[in-house]
Write a structure and sequence with these properties.
By secondary structure, the protein is of the alpha/beta class. It folds into two domains: 144 residues, serine acetyltransferase, domain 1 (Orthogonal Bundle); 123 residues, Hexapeptide repeat proteins (UDP N-Acetylglucosamine Acyltransferase, domain 1), CATH 2.160.10.10. It has nine helices and 15 strands. It has a six-stranded mixed beta sheet. Strands 1-4-7-10-13 form a five-stranded parallel beta sheet. The chain has a four-stranded parallel beta sheet with strand order 2-5-8-11, with no helix packed on it. Strand 14 and strand 15 form a beta hairpin. Helix 1 runs antiparallel to helix 2, helix 4 crosses helix 7 and helix 7 packs antiparallel against helix 8. The longest helix has 17 residues. It starts with 11 loop residues before the first helix and ends in a 15-residue tail after the last helix.
């Protein structure tokens, strides 16, 4: 049983993670020491996540203890604490491979890369830009996810598989968005300043889609896998193709929550974005 001193009721998600860890520890003794070190000896979710990230992202340039202290500082902010839990809940709710909270917390690189970005973004806002870019670079090396530390990302975000996701400097991703692997939120290559996409709430962007330029993806829109989006997309529209064109209206208010990648019936007039 968990130690009596652990305030299990104070944080439902952390309580669930610990309960799953105790269950797995009993089921498979080979994981016993790992689960103790990674989860069961930690007092809080933030402690366990900070330990995970600092161990994976440390380099010869940054002392592990100093990196851990830095991550702890970022995770002390209430907004980041809330975002961590909302992101983990998003994985639990939307990814059928998650099988609870413990597995994505320990092993899903989309979740971990996103939390590393939250630390880098916090550093960026503190004016520590070089250190923020160093952490971004290390996150890209370890997780294969490249998010500029200046990019603004909301909470309740699912980055499914996450390999090769690229999010540019002036991108904005609002709450409850789902991005699959190889999604790019990039510039056109010739613009400066505010040059990256603005993705509103509830949007789902399919695998391999490229959204380029300072365009707006309206609330509740859906972008088909492999699409190239060069123009703004109206709210609750589904677009697909190269270049992307409207193929129908979304059947639900927030495609990101449903994760249904099927297309609706096409518009009769075949109108574009």
């Amino acid at each position: 049983m968990p130690p009596a001193a652990q305030p299990l009721n104070a944080d439902p998600i952390w309580s669930a993670i610990r309960a799953e860890a105790w269950s797995e520890e009993e089921r498979d003794p080979l994981l016993r020491q790992f689960l103790f070190d990674a989860i069961l000896k930690c007092r809080r979710l933030e402690d366990a996540l900070s330990q995970q990230l600092s161990s994976k992202l440390t380099t010869v340039c940054v002392n592990p203890a100093l990196l851990r202290s830095l991550v702890d500082q970022a995770f002390g902010h209430q907004e980041i604490k809330r975002a961590i839990r909302n992101d983990l809940q998003a994985v639990r709710d939307r990814d059928p491979a998650s099988r609870g909270y413990l597995m994505p917390f320990l092993f899903f690189k989309g979740f971990q890369a996103l939390q590393a970005h939250r630390v880098a973004h916090w550093l960026w806002t503190q004016g520590r830009e070089l250190l923020a870019v160093h952490l971004q670079n290390r996150t890209s090396e370890v997780f294969g996810v490249d998010i500029h530390p200046a990019a603004s990302i909301g909470s309740g975000i699912l980055m499914d598989h996450a390999t090769s996701i690229v999010i540019g400097e002036t991108s904005v991703v609002e709450d409850n968005v789902s991005l699959l692997h190889e999604v790019t939120l990039g510039g056109t290559g010739k613009e400066t300043g505010d040059r990256h996409p603005k993705v509103r709430q509830g949007v789902m962007i399919g695998a391999g889609a490229k959204v380029l330029g300072n365009v707006e993806i309206g609330e509740g829109a859906k972008i088909g896998a492999g699409s190239v989006v060069l123009d703004s997309v109206a709210p609750h529209c589904t677009v697909a193709g190269v270049p992307a064109r409207v193929v129908g209206r979304c059947g639900v208010a927030s495609p990101a929550l449903e994760m249904d990648q099927q297309f609706p019936h096409s518009h009769e007039n075949g109108s574009g974005i």
